[in-house]
Protein 1
Amino acid sequence: MKRTIVLLGPPGSGKGTQGEKLSQELGFVRLSTGDMLREAARNGTPLGIKAKGYMDSGALVPNELIINLMKEKVASLGEGVGVIFDGFPRTVEQADALGEQIKVDLALNLDVDDDELINRLTKRRSCPKCNSVFHLEYNPPAKPGICDKCGAELYHRDDDKEETVANRLKVYRKNTMPLIEYYEKRGILQTIKGEGSIDEIFANVKKTVL
Ligand code: AMP
């Protein structure tokens, strides 16, 4: 089984949803830089204050901030723990830094068409407390506006609004897409179609990991 997994794919491709399911099923730790940064911003920490402007506009947070954050997280993982990286690395520099610290076994790339990404992001609703995500049509919460898991009030992330989504996709193409080739060259890339039901996609995700 692959124990160190990087999830690649554009915003809205399902990295959070699939990564969470995988971590539940295998007992792996999921490290999401987006969740960490949003929490830091909510708590008004120095990192959160620095990151917020970049996030709200759909830009990437500077490499040095993210790399330091992840170095600490990776260093604190227990021996032999399985780990899923969601939203990291997003640049070649970040991938180099990660590769210096830990051996990546699998880069799993979720491939989704642009129209579908825009639909998913603009209709996505997120939980500020436990980070669960829902979709108004495909995966609605049982009670409208309320998180099924923890009961908190769901919100529409500022950067999931239509104006910002286009910029995030542009940033993805320029900075993050080169990682597909990066991991392909290292012989650990697997691409799967990230469209269909959550469970169908998850069945394919599991096949690549087990
Ligand atoms: P996500 O929740 O993964 O979509 O991330 C939300 C936002 O957090 C991104 O649009 C970036 O502004 C920032 N962010 C998350 N991960 C990274 C990263 N690895 N490098 C730079 N910025 C990041």
Protein 2
Amino acid sequence: MAPLTISADVTHTLESGKPIVALESAVITHGLPKAAALDAVRRQWVACAEAGATPAVVAVFDGALRVGLSLDDCAALAARRDAVKVSPWNLASATTHPGFGGTTVAATIAAAALAGIRVASTGGIGGVHPGRDGQDVSADLTELSRRAVCVVCAGPKSTLDAGATLERLETLGVPVIGWQSSLLAGFLATSAGLRLPVRAEAVDELAAILGAHWALEGAGAVVSQPLPADLAIPIAELGADEAAPVRGPDRTPAELSRLQARLGDRVIQANVALLERNAALAGALAAALTRLQVSVPSRG
Ligand code: PSU
Ligand code: MN
């Protein structure tokens, strides 16, 4: 079986040069309870479409890395208890066994870049976990340094060390652009309290920065969109995670589910809201890239 399978709808969109946005699926399999996850996918789907872009959900499905799941496929993926969390390190093995998995931002942008998709949307990106000398770092960051894809997010997840994450992005040469804000977004909280070097007020400005970044042979970029205060959870309430940290790939899902258990439905509502808002912005950005004919020059 071909390792990368692109749906007919996505192929058609790419061939006609129309706007398209990659959506991650680890949030479906590992980030949210099943009903909320499906609600979130539908909302992201509609938000992209309303902004003029085709949504392309990426996942490991039926033994292949797929770009362009249908909503029925997403429901089937959410129902599978054997679906693994897929990052670049287990991407190849997941296609052979179990053949189903939710792709993290890292694996999603790898697939997007291979397919020629330049914008992806998620809730919060992975980053540097607190403790252990900053050694527990999400593959999202390294993959962002390699793939010419712009990820629209609400900053790093609240359980991460936001300062260390921002510093690592700087080290890796990944621009972080504040969407109508000078502060790094704090996922479920409005702000992570850290100043960003650049902000943009309009999608055309974002597109211009990305065009220059890619022309200068830059790779990934991050757009940080804060959740408005009326939808966000105050940072003091989010608090510190007192439980003994789970190590490795299970850590992020464990921390997210402990937050959901501690603060209840508000966490899920805020998470779904930011996913929807990020998908809308990603769709508008993809449309701007098309309109302004911004692309990644072929190299070599
Ligand atoms: N954002 C969410 N829920 C999630 C994630 C992000 O709102 O479940 C996932 C993303 O797929 C992200 C991943 O890429 O968590 C990071 O996991 P890790 O820290 O193991 O790299
Ligand atoms: Mn990790």
